[in-house]
Predict the 3D structure of the following.
Amino acid sequence: MKKPYQELLKKLKAQLKPGELILDEKIRKEYSTDKWLMSVVPDAVALPTTDVSVSKILAFANKHGIPVTPRGAGCGYAGGCVPVRAGIVLSVERFNKIKEINVGDFVAITGAGVVTEKLQKAVEHRGLFYPPDPASLADSFIGGNIATNAGGPRCLKYGVTRDYVLGLKVVLADGTILSLGSRTHKNKTGFDLSRIFVGSEGLLGVITEAVLKLIPLPPFRACLSIGFESMEAAARTIRNIFASGILPSAVEIADEFTLASAQKYTGSKLLSGCKAHLLLEQDGQEKAVRLDIIKLEEIARHEKPVFVKKAFGKSNCEIIWNLRRVFSTALKSSGLKKINEDVTVPRSKLEDLFALTAKLQNKYGFPIACFGHAGDGNIHVNIMVDESDPDCQKQIKELLDNLFSKVLAFGGVITGEHGIGLARLPWWNIATSPEVRDLHRRIKSALDPKGILNPGKFV
């Protein structure tokens, strides 16, 4: 730790409640990384319990030029909460109370440190629904979801996190506490300032509380699990589903390598002979859902699938979803390192994306496992790497250069859910125009002129 920081942080600690600033090295190491590959040990960990404490920490850091990296649950895959300039990691984990679930207003008011799944269950217990469902929902915080504009399978029908943010409480770099937005479902009082902080990756302020829109809980769910002999057949099925006029709540896809890993990991014989898999879910009124499932099955059977498995009702659907949820773990158990990208292409370019990844696999020799949210074109492209290969890093960089440049040429984007963070920082300049990057810098400069918030990232 730098000597000037040592003395400054001791002064800051004296201004806070006991336990709100930690200097212990073991604890600092625990806050050095997320699920990406880089770690940097911060000089201190802040665990504030009130907005006032967050304000004191940021005002002090701003005055003395100490870097502050906001942190949710540390579930990210892009290095977004890695404190690359050390300084203070500020965790919102103690903002963990659901303050209100209002059935009449269809609103939840929640601390930024509330676990997403906890909020969803509490809301559903009241007959309401908070749709955003990132894969990390059992661990991730609402604040982290907002900071990354998290998605998930249900985005196809219901939209992403930003579509449910009505208001935020945010603390700026200089310690100013802001209450933005409202609890109304319509609000045109000035600029939509809450949205500036959605997806901002901790570069503009610290989110401590959110007012979230809720909707009625769909009374019934049904799923189809479908195996295909080719990715082309699965892609045609997706195209035909949308042409039919049916909008499922989720359309998930997986390729041959992913399925082989899942079969080996689970021991299931269901996936034997499958080179592609679709998971379709529909929700709503039971009669309508059952009719939709009949139609979806008819569409799928045109491609002569290897198998079709149906599930009706929440508990049966969860059994099918358990297969989808094991994909990432199964890939990690393969013995290869999984480099997880989350590109998104226009829906019409989905087949082109799978053709591209097949070409890249043949060219570079790395297995590439693709699965994800086919309904909105957001696919997790996982490059499976043998780290004992001394030339692999150079090849990976070249492969990613090719992947991202082609995705951009398709009209797509280099990240649909995980964010830029550190993982996609090398491609920030090709993914955005000079004018767009300049606008980012202007907004950053207006809200954080000294650049103390999450420095070393894309702005």
Notes: The mean pLDDT is 95. The first strand starts at residue 21 and ends at 22.
